[in-house]
Amino acid sequence: MDAWFSYRLSDFILFSERVYWRLFDQINALVGAFLPAVIALGCLLLVGVWSRYRAVQIATAVLLAAFWISNACLFLWIYYAPVNWAARYAVPFFLLEAGLILLVGTNPQLNRPLARRDARGSVGFAMLVYAVIVHPFTSLMFGRPLGSAEFVGLAPDATALATLGYALMVASNKALWLLLPIPVAALAFSGLTLYTLGTPEAWVIPVALLVTLTTLFSTKPPADATTATPVTRP
Amino acid sequence: MTDIKHPLTRRHLLQQSLALAGAAMLPPGGWADAVPAVRTRVIPSSGEAMPIVGLGTWITFNVGNDTTLLNESAAVMAAFFEAGGRMIDSSPMYGSSQNTLGFGLNKLGESTPVFSADKVWTSNANNGASQIETSEQRWGVPRFDLLQVHNLVNWESHLRLLRQMKAAGEVRYIGITTSESRRHAEFENVMHGQPLDFIQVSYNILNRDSEDRILPLAMDKGIAVIANRPFQQKQLIHQLEGKPLPAWAQEFDATSWAQFLLKYVISHPAITCTIPATTRVDHVRENMACAAGPLPDAKQRERMAAYVRDL
Predict the structure, then answer these.
(1) Taking CB atoms and an 8 Å limit, are B68 and A6 in contact across chains?
(2) Residues 6+ apart with CB under 8 A from B232
(3) Alpha carbon distance B188, B166 (integer Å)
(4) Which DSSP letter does residue A171 get?
(5) Pairing between β-strand B224-228 and β-strand B271-274 as defined by DSSP bridges
């Protein structure tokens, strides 16, 4: 046990920044011609979170859950695990998050009322927009090619950021504690990794986490669907 | 019913194309004819000569399944062998580095003069043998030249296993490693009490902790020394970037900070081999050039250390 305590964080980051970003290059290249379709699916999240239609709400949850499964299989298992053995241990948690999203998304008792234009809802939507539309272009901002861009559904950070936004918009107060721990932990690990690699965009993740947690603890908790007047859903 | 004696499979095609690509990288006449004269140091326990600059794989060779980076790593290995290098060091801890080495060795062909150095790194004493077997498969070598207990993890059990393997001819040399100065007391105890061919420690111009006791003890007991992190994982290079190389560095043919730093390490008489890691062919050539030129003497070494310390 003493031997383990003698290691530093940098001892576990056994790959270079270049190798890390090339993981996304490879995944984007694998998806190839279907990349616009993946991006379009990400954009559907932006629409789905506002819908009053039950079927659309469920489809939105299914889509986000599918993104977590895709990250678990494609990113973690196939591409990341060969350079970081610890990635395999994250796979069950990614699959669990997919299950939790389905649980919350398909259960009206775990949803917020549909009036989502309050502070929490607005921050949540801004986070979703950032994850789906802005985050992929951080690669260009920091001098990396667009080929290594991180897209929702293919890259865990973008997917976790989108999930923070989704949770703030959709989940009831109780359900937030189901949906948030795994993406927050995933982003914390990723932020530490980027920081250790010395990548300039490492600050993006702590800022996103700070905004989410500040919003969570500073906004007045809206009434849950369980206590509010039930909304008629078609 | 078919006339084809060797069915054409994707694996077969891949192996053939790798062999062809490897043949294209092989110098005419094979590695042995192409190797230039480089400075060597003797492994005390056997008298075998070892080129003083080797190749590390920590971080640099952990490239996963990325074929572009796998090929770049193979090119680094080819340049290393062409320049007279032999020792390549890795560990099961280094992610996919062992697979990358296997890819490179397969691509370059069987005649590479590689001196394969790897480690056993598991806290479970029962897993040591199977881990070593897996490592051999990843490298694609029948046996390792050197096996070391990584960072003293479960060293008593693993050294027992390595001694048995050496006695059975399953490994040529055995040793221990550490990359942490605060474990030097325990390290020293193992050096005193166990028969070792090699030790591996971190040593560079700003990390001279092993100079006082570990390196003299190694010389005294006839143990070969591998110096890792000669550039402190690039930190020293970044630190010195843009700062003037002293004119007197020409006295021992150091034309860059990398050569300056490397010549400091290999000029210590206890060092058998240092293992800088790189992803670039030009850097591996620059590193190997150190093994061919003159080295600073003791007085120059002190001047070098003081100069860097005061920058």
Answers:
(1) no
(2) B202, B204, B206, B207
(3) 22
(4) B
(5) parallel
A52 or B159: which leads in pLDDT = B159
Quote the CA–CA distance of B241 and A198 in Å, as a whole number. 17
Provide DSSP, A193-225: HHHHHT-GGGGHHHHHHHHHHHHHHHSPPPPPT
Which parts of chain A fold into alpha helices (H)? 2-5, 9-12, 17-31, 35-48, 54-70, 87-106, 119-129, 138-141, 156-170, 173-179, 181-197, 204-218
B63 with A79: Cβ contact below 8 A? no
Nearest in space to B227 (alpha carbons), one of B54, B48, B58, B85: B54
Whether B39 and B86 have beta carbons less than 8 Å apart is answered as no
Report residue B148 as tokens. Answer: 């070391």
Residues A8-44 pLDDT 10s: 777 778 899 999 999 999 999 999 889 999 999 999 9
A54-70 vs A156-170: helix crossing angle, rounded to 10: 150
Cα Rg of chain A, angstroms: 18
Q: For residue A3, which residues of chain B lie inside 8 Å, CB to CB?
A: 123, 151-153
Q: Which of A2, A4, A9, A14 to mutate to test the interface with B (most CBs of B within 10 A)?
A: A14
For residue A203, what are the contacts with CB-CB under 8 A and spacing of at least 6? Answer: none
Q: Which amino acid is at A51?
A: S
Q: In the CATH scheme, what is the code of domain B38-310?
A: 3.20.20.100
Which one-letter DSSP state was computed for residue B45? T
Contact criterion met (CB < 8 Å) for B95 and A82: yes
Per residue in B227-286, pLDDT tens? 999 998 778 888 888 888 999 999 999 989 999 999 999 999 999 999 999 999 999 999
Contact B64 A16 (CB under 8 A): no
Task: Provide the residue ranges of all domains of chain A, joining segments of one domain with +.
Answer: 15-218
pLDDT of residue B33: 60
Q: Least CB-CB distance to A82: which of B60, B96, B183?
A: B96
- Return d(Cα A228, Cα B207) in angstroms, integer: 65
Query: Given the structure tokens 């007047």, which residue do they identify?
Result: A229
Give, as one character, the DSSP assignment of residue B65.
T
Which ipTM did the prediction report?
Answer: 0.81
Chain A residues whose C-beta sits inside 8 Å of any chain B C-beta:
3-4, 6, 14-16, 18-19, 22-23, 26, 78-80, 82-85
Other Cβ atoms closer than 10 A to B61: 32
- Residue B221: the pLDDT is 96
